[in-house]
Write a structure and sequence with these properties.
alpha/beta; Rossmann fold; Threonyl-tRNA Synthetase, Chain A, domain 2; 2 domains; nine-stranded mixed sheet; four-stranded antiparallel sheet; 13 strands; globular; disordered C terminus; binds magnesium ion
């Protein structure tokens, strides 16, 4: 019997284009994946509301991991009930899902963000400070998508003073005074600037410079409260002690109990994807649109890097791995025949 594949995939700048949020370039590869019955588990920093919308458009009816590993949402009858017990997992029912929760409630994260701003003596703006229009402006999302993005449960995206996003919205408390026209202007400026400003370079977290120090300082404050900060493709994220990797490992366990032996593929582009990439058998680092190459500690030689970015890179890697997997399966099927020939290998 052939070994089943399971794909875990980030969204922003991976399955979705960083700038346009389009997945069109990935569709042919995604079609092949669906035809083979390979589950695609979306593993994202997006909210449940956003992820549901994307999964719906992609026609995916598989579990998904939201808000940087804050929770796993599993369609209700996806796995047999007994599997959760065998895995020793606590779940609860919500709408048509089985939910496995790892994250810290959003209200606590909001309080912690305010405290952090005081401790590091910097202005920080989180999504909770912004209206849907402003979220649209800083993310480039449409109004409706921005509204879905504001429904946070386990992860607060934020940015620092003097960042391009900060300049765009100019601080919390202003939104009520802002007129629609002004916000419209922000959107236009934002589009003109382009959102391809580099990830690591812009966030500046790797250097020994001021921003590097600031990032480490923020991490220290977060850790003192049992929380953590990661850098996504666009924003910093304040979360509880959860990450994509932990959620991926739990889902892997459930798939293994349900399907037997599996091979897992993971695709991501950002620092917050590292835990996910470390948790899978075949990690794929999708190239950044800005050409900025992340250095991944402990990813090892097995890490596959795509030459293209976003959904094109996604398709490139998935096509390649499907071919590899199929040829490996053919080998497996042919093996007994070889065995009966016997003796060939001495
Ligand atoms: Mg990403």
């Amino acid at each position: 019997m052939s070994i089943r594949l399971v794909i875990f995939s980030a969204l922003d700048a991976t399955l979705l284009d960083h700038r346009t949020y389009s997945y069109r370039a990935a569709l042919p590869a995604l079609k092949k994946v669906k035809k083979r019955g390979i589950p695609v588990v979306l593993c994202t920093s997006k909210t449940r509301a956003e992820t549901e919308a994307v999964a719906g458009r992609l026609g995916l009816q598989h579990p998904f991991i939201v808000e940087n590993g804050g929770a796993i949402f599993i369609p209700e009858d996806y796995f047999p009930e007994s599997i959760y017990r065998s895995a020793g997992l606590r779940t609860f029912k919500k709408d048509n899902y089985r939910v496995i929760q790892f994250g810290t409630p959003y209200r606590r994260l909001r309080l912690a963000l305010k405290m952090m701003a005081r401790k590091i003596a910097r202005k920080l703006i989180g999504f909770g400070d912004l209206g849907a229009r402003e979220i649209a402006a800083v993310t480039g999302l449409g109004r409706k998508e921005a509204e879905l993005a504001s429904r946070r449960e386990y992860d607060e995206p934020f940015f620092l003073e003097n960042s391009p996003e900060f300049v765009l919205v100019q601080g919390p408390g202003q939104q009520s005074k802002r007129k629609d026209k002004e916000i419209k202007e922000i959107e236009v400026i934002h589009k003109a600037q382009g959102r391809e400003i580099t990830h690591g370079q812009r966030l500046g977290i790797e250097g020994s410079g001021e921003r590097g120090k600031l990032f480490r300082n923020m991490q220290k404050v977060a850790r003192s409260q049992g929380l953590r900060i990661t850098a996504g493709g666009r924003f910093f994220h304040l979360t509880g002690n959860n990450d994509k990797g932990r959620a991926v490992r739990v889902l892997k366990k459930l798939y293994r109990l349900n399907l037997g032996k599996i091979i897992t593929i993971g695709l991501g582009d950002s620092e917050n994807d590292w835990p996910m990439l470390r948790a899978v058998d075949l990690p794929v680092l999708v190239a950044r649109p800005d050409g900025f190459n992340l250095t991944l500690p402990e990813a090892g030689a097995k890490l596959l890097r795509t030459s293209r970015s976003g959904p094109e890179g996604w398709a490139e890697a998935v096509d390649f791995l499907l071919i590899l997997h199929e040829s490996a399966n053919r080998e497996t099927r042919n093996r007994p025949t070889r065995k009966t020939k016997g003796g060939n290998h001495g």
